[in-house]
Specification:
This protein has 3 helices and 4 strands. It is of the alpha/beta class and 87 residues long. It has one domain: Transcription Regulator spoIIAA (2-Layer Sandwich), CATH 3.30.750. β2, α1 and β3 form a beta-alpha-beta unit. It is globular.
Length: 87
């Protein structure tokens, strides 16, 4: 499953793994409704459809990690999402 919610940590973390498609956008929105302080870890994400990407950006979800690739760091800089790290 591309999205996995970890509620054992504080704040809750959404783990995005593999290929995240447009179909996962509803699951992302549902997780945000249940956990408005949600953070996201994209380090294991191989592909992110623009719909979930736009949802992450719209709600300014803090990112804990992005894939180790210059393109991902360009696409998903930490600062617009509320993180403290520099890309």
């Amino acid at each position: 499953m591309p999205l996995r919610l970890d509620t054992d940590c504080s704040p809750p973390m959404l783990l995005c793994e593999g290929i995240v498609t447009i179909e996962e956008t509803d699951q992302l929105l549902e997780a945000l409704q249940q956990h408005p302080d949600l953070t996201a870890d994209l380090s294991a994400c191989e592909h992110l459809h623009t719909a979930p990407l736009q949802t992450l950006r719209l709600f300014k979800i803090p990112l804990r990690a992005v894939p180790d690739d210059p393109f991902w760091r360009f696409l998903l800089p930490s600062s617009p999402f509320g993180g403290d790290e520099e890309p």
